[in-house]
Each structure stands twice: as structure tokens, then as C-alpha cells.
Amino acid sequence: MKYRPIVPYILLRQFVRSVSVDGLLGAIGGSCRHVFRSLGKYGFKGAFKVFFRKAPASPQDSTTEQPHPFDLLHGTDTGGPMSGAYYSAISLSSIYTTGYVGATPSALTQALSALLLRQEDFTFVDVGCGKGRALLIAARFPFRHLVGVELSSELCDTARANVAANPDLASRITILNEDATRVVYPEGPLLLFLANPFLAPILRRALQNIERQLRPSPRPTWLLYEMNPHYEDVLDSFPFLKEISDTTYPFSEEDAAFDPMSRTEESFTLYFVDLSG
Q1: Contact assessment for residue 163 and residue 136, using Cβ atoms and an 8 Å cutoff
Q2: For domain 69-273, which CATH number applies: 3.20.20.100, 3.40.50.2000, 3.40.50.150, 2.60.40.10?
Q3: Beta strands 190-194; 123-127: pairing state
Q4: What is the dihedral sign for C-alpha 36, 42, 48, 53?
Q5: Could you give the maximum distance between any two Cα atoms of the chain, in Å?
Q6: How far apart are CA 269 and CA 231, in angstroms?
Q7: CA-CA distance, 236 to 201, in Å (whole number)?
Q8: Measured between alpha carbons, how far is 277 from 273 in angstroms, rounded to an integer?
Q9: How many helices (H) and strands (E) in the chain?
Q10: So what's the pLDDT on residue 240?
Q11: What pLDDT is stored for residue 80 in this prediction?
Q12: DSSP-derived pairing of the beta strands 265-273 and 221-226
């Protein structure tokens, strides 16, 4: 049965997201304007029903998208975008998720191809893996193992089904239904991939979790971040992350045609974890 969130949770998540983008006063002002518009349009009873009783249809309920060529090729379901408000989760960290958008195959493939490291020694970890598209892309490279960390149990189920649809890759991929602020990372060298999965409060806690685990158990670790300029200052505030490169990769014509935000390129920032300081 599809999870249907209660309306107050959706409103809370929208308010928290607005605070992150517009600040507290901007979020309060926007919420007040929304309330007054609803009162004017529906009256008191109608507005009460909208705000507290009737959950809006989720994007995946109201739209039918043409499958991405990646899914047609691999027999998977990795499409989007989808708001994180419409999925069940195992912790309150879900309030600060950014939602799901599948990785762009052409851009991520270029970013992984450019890595100057011995990939067969590394475990690739997609922190906030969603439906698992990035894992399936990365599995075409010779990483020792691949791990997806995802807060939503529904997205985990979909990711596992997508992995199972590709049995030649399935033995190398593990999906963990865990909170990125508490997940325990595997031993050995790591390449951590974050495709802008969280708002700033949880991004900070996820990075603190990484540092907390690596300090007593140092190992070669790199972090590849699909950059959102809103959160660049968050990563820069952690001295153990040393920026190595910031590169923009163009989409293939096929990927550009299917991008939900009409983008034609994507920027990736590569960091090396340096705990010597």
C-alpha cells in the first residue's frame, strides 16, 4: 500500500525547507500569504480541510512520465523527480531531505571516468541513493563493492528491485535503509557520492558522522558531491574536506531531453578527506 503522509507533516516539511532557502522571516511571510490566499479562496472550513484533512496528491500520483532511456535499457524504474514529503522514513531527518531526482547517466559517467584512483580498491557509497540509478551507473566501473544508503523504506524497496533486475551487478550492490547521520561505513578505502540529498542541517550531521568514523579508523576516502551552490559553504566549513576539483560535465542530448529541470550540464566537486590536521 502506498504511503500517504498526513498534511501537517507535509506543511512542516515545506516550512522547514522554506526556512533553509528564505530564512525564518521569509518562511513565516510566505506561510502567512499562503494561509490568507486559502482563506480568501475556500473560506475557513475549506481552508481547514485543505491544511489539516486532505493530503494533496503526490507528484507520482498525478503525472505519468515517459520512461527514461536508462530504464528502458536496463529494465528498471529510476524515474523522478519526487518530493521526499511523500515517502515514509525511519527518522525525523526526512524533514530535511531534498527529494529524489535520478542521477544523469552521461554526466555521472564522465565524473567517475575522470577519477584518478584505483577504483578496484574502493567501495562506492551513494549517500541518499533513492531508487539506485547512480549505483547502477557506478557498477559499470570496477569498484570493489557498492553501497546505497537511503532513509525511505519505499525508495529502498524500489532500489533493491532495480538491482535485482540486473543480476550481473546484484552481487556487488548492497542497499541499506538507514539514516546518513548514523550509518556505519564499511572498512577500507571509500568513495562517497552525495547528489545533493539533504538540506543544510542534515548535511552537516552527515558530514560529522563521516568525520567521527574516519578519525579513529583512517583510510583513503574521497567525496564526490553533485554540487548545489546553496550548500557549498556547508562543505567548506569542514576543514577535513580538501577540495581537489570542481568540474562541469555536459549532458548527452538524450539526457538533456529527459532532465526534469531542463538542465544541459552538471557540476561535481571532488574532495579528499584529510584528517592529518
Answers
A1: yes
A2: 3.40.50.150
A3: parallel
A4: negative
A5: 63
A6: 12
A7: 14
A8: 11
A9: 10, 7
A10: 97
A11: 78
A12: antiparallel
